[in-house]
Amino acid sequence: LVAGRKTGDTWLLITSKSRPTVLDQYVATADHALGEPSWLVGRIITATGPVGFNVLDIVYGQLAVAAVLVALYQLRGVATERRFPRHHLVRSFLVIGLLGPAFYMIFPVVGPLFAYGTGTEYWAPVSLWAEQIPSSAHLAVAHLWPETLPPVGIPQPMPFDEITPRNCMPSLHTAWATAIFLHTRRGPRLLRHAGTFWLVATLTATLGFGYHYGVDLIAGVVFVLTVEAALRAHDTGWQRSGVHLVAYGTTVLVALLLSYRFLPLEMARHPWLAGPLLILATASVVYGYVRTTTAWDQPGPAPAPRPEAHPEPA
């Protein structure tokens, strides 16, 4: 913003730096197609009091610990075999962490707790580890989360501070928790149960804490399955099925982001159409991933026996 003030024959330009904007209004409007699940789960966790919040907070905050335990199991034979397994969690986590932040810059979103709530102040009375973060309540559209659903209106970019992370679209916590779930499917029963628990608890926390919208989670699932498909396709030599799966996952992810940005009002006005389409698109990527990777895991046909050479009789 530039303002001018004349002094004699001289113009003094007074400049003030405008705040960067976020796209939370677009995402919140699109989230009407899913029924605004963050508001619902947020009220449920609020009703559970300090116990429910802090149990989920421990799970949410210790995602790296779960990843280390799974990685240790997968890499337990590296010292003796002197080689890494073909596909392991460490590689998946690194790729997700490298690619994910690029979407944060393209699609900056701070989450309903900050854009429509009072920020971390909301959980301070029940949190055992309350963080001293500068309040962003004065920047919120209104203090609606989690009691009152945001009204449907024409979304606009909204200014926000430079401190609150734009780490919502897609949800990388969802992506990492889903990766843990996928990499525990071949482990022992206890590890499989732990992977399932961590996924469910993480999804509950990301929504119920107000850190993410429902559409963030959908984008996170499609993102991680596309990354996992690309890594496994690379291991198998980029067969046609792998190329098709990666291309399809990328197309769905791009379509989701474009719809959140340019069609949120239409999605909110027709939730009975947009909601099932979002779920169906995500389910199609899940189905394609399971079907393709299951085929890769099947043992190939045994090679035909080579005919033995017999000396001709003299």
Task: Describe this entry's structure for a reader.
With 314 residues, the protein is mainly alpha-helical. The protein has one domain (23-294). It contains twelve helices and four strands. The chain has helices at residues 24-30, 37-61, 63-74, 78-81, 89-106, 112-115, 172-183, 189-208, 214-235, 240-262, 264-269, 271-297, and strands spanning 2-7, 10-15, 21-22, 158-159. The chain has a two-stranded antiparallel sheet. Helix 3 runs parallel beside helix 7 (172-183) and helix 9 runs parallel beside helix 12 (271-297). It is globular.
Secondary structure: elements and pairs:
Blueprint: E1 2-7, E2 10-15, E3 21-22, H1 24-30, H2 37-61, H3 63-74, H4 78-81, H5 89-106, H6 112-115, E4 158-159, H7 172-183, H8 189-208, H9 214-235, H10 240-262, H11 264-269, H12 271-297
Antiparallel strand pairs: 1-2, 3-4
Summarize the entry for a quick read.
The protein is mainly alpha-helical. The chain has helices at 24-30, 37-61, 63-74, 78-81, 89-106, 112-115, 172-183, 189-208, 214-235, 240-262, 264-269, 271-297; strands spanning 2-7, 10-15, 21-22, 158-159. The chain has a two-stranded antiparallel ribbon.
Total number of helices: 12
Give the radius of gyration. 25 Å
Q: Biggest β-sheet, characterized?
A: 2 strands, antiparallel
Helix content: 55-70%
Averaged pLDDT, please? 89
Q: How many strand units? A: 4
Instruction: Report the oligomer.
Output: single chain
**General form:** globular
Low-confidence stretches: 1-16
**Which series of helices and strands comes N to C?**
EEEHHHHHHEHHHHHH
Instruction: Quote the distance from N terminus to C terminus.
Output: 102 Å
The SS-based structural class is mainly alpha
Strand fraction: 5-15%
Strand order of the largest sheet: 1-2
> How many structurally independent domains?
1
